[in-house]
Specification:
The structure holds 2 protein chains of 2 kinds. By secondary structure, chain A is mainly α. Chain A contains 8 helices and no strands. In chain B, strand 5 and strand 6 form a beta hairpin. The chains are: A mainly alpha, B alpha+beta.
Chain lengths: ~260, ~110
């Protein structure tokens, strides 16, 4: 039961934080939320497909298909969040309305769909190991239900924290949160390339595991929120900073856009 | 083959080349999963060297090879095997576990 709780919580948290950041952003800019809903549906279907064919995908490219798929999905999320941020800036400026709407819709839908396909697949695969016996599935469902509840609560809490900020701060915070999540994902994508043997691993730049273990609850939350890694390698940090600059710069455009309007 | 099509295949060719270069002369070690246990549970690998790990899942149920210390996670479906690369690593002990059966599926990579 406990392992079901932890697995579901970890996965829900990662997808949930993106959804809550996007929901908060759409509320702050007065945009619609259909993109996020479409993304959640696509993500659910994507996760089912991913879980169903993961064995086949894993065998691709001499056994590194899973890593290529994960790295691809993570980098796609970074790109889609960048599109979303450009959409936010355009909308606030009131320019290129059609383009802004398309970027907001597909940026949100795509990012949520990719995150969902990745995270929820693991839950489905885990649950599939218990077959259809009621006795075996019950503790898994209870544990998973509690995990889902905790993950959704943390995401909801973050959402309300974001929307109850004063407008100027909310605009900054809804820029910051997806930026940090995206940066963490860019770093994670590099880890998959190390795992696949496509990049050669290096010496870690530092080791903060004595301060905060990645496996601890705080470590896991910070991992989902800002990509915390106790022993990061130079290439991971480079990818992290590159995504931080890319997504951050497009995100900050919304702030200067507010200045323009005055 | 038309030049245009060859050009389109170039990224894949480059990727395969990269993969084969990266995989060249890498020592390979095998771990098996049976009844939600790892065999061997302690695997010794050389220091400061990239290593290819083949994890064979002999169970019918899926497992996830996971390690915070090695920064690795990979799902292995039932009766399938997975390839992953670790290292180069400094001497020490790097625990790993099966996330789907964390009570029993425990192991350590020992680097000496």
């Amino acid at each position: 039961m406990l392992s079901a709780l932890i697995i579901v919580l970890r996965e829900v948290l990662e997808a949930g934080l993106i959804i809550s950041a996007l929901l908060a952003a759409s509320r702050v800019i007065g945009g619609d939320r259909r993109g996020i809903g479409v993304g959640a549906l696509l993500g659910f279907l994507g996760a089912l497909a991913n879980a169903r064919w993961l064995g086949t995908v894993s065998d691709w490219a001499d056994g590194i298909g899973q890593e290529l798929l994960n790295a691809g999905l993570l980098l796609a999320i970074v790109a889609l969040l960048t599109c979303y941020n450009i959409g936010v800036a355009l909308r606030i400026r009131g320019r290129r309305k059609q383009l802004a709407d398309a970027l907001l819709f597909w940026g949100a839908a795509g990012a949520v769909a990719c995150a969902g396909s990745r995270e929820c697949a693991e839950i489905f695969i885990y649950a599939s190991g218990f077959g259809t016996s009621f006795a075996a599935l019950t503790p898994v469902l209870i544990g998973g239900g509690i995990g889902l509840g905790i993950g959704a609560s943390i995401a909801a809490l973050l959402y309300y924290l974001l929307v109850y900020l004063r407008p100027a701060q909310a605009l900054l915070a809804t820029c910051l949160m997806p930026t940090l999540i995206a940066a963490g994902m860019a770093g994670q994508a590099i880890t998959y390339l190390f795992q696949a043997g496509l990049l050669n691993a290096e010496e870690p730049l530092w080791d903060t595991s004595a301060l905060l273990l990645e496996s601890s609850a705080t470590g896991q939350l910070l991992y989902a929120l800002l990509g915390y890694e106790a022993t990061p390698m130079p290439m991971q940090i480079t990818a992290y900073l590159a995504a931080l600059v890319l997504v951050g710069a497009t995100g900050l455009a919304r702030l200067s856009a507010r200045g323009d309007r005055r | 083959m038309k030049p245009k099509r060859a050009l389109r295949l170039a990224p894949f060719a480059a990727l395969m080349l990269l993969a084969s270069l990266a995989a060249a002369e890498v020592p390979t070690f095998t771990i098996e999963i049976r009844d939600h246990l790892f065999f061997p549970a302690r695997l010794t690998i050389p220091r400061q060297q990239k290593v290819k790990l083949i994890v064979i899942n002999r169970d019918d149920t899926p497992e996830e090879f996971e390690s915070y210390e090695l920064n690795r996670e990979k799902v292995i479906m039932g009766n399938r095997q997975a390839v992953l690369f670790i290292g180069p690593l400094a001497p020490g002990e790097y625990p790993f576990f099966g996330e789907f059966h964390p009570k029993t599926a425990l192991g350590t990579v020992v680097v000496d």
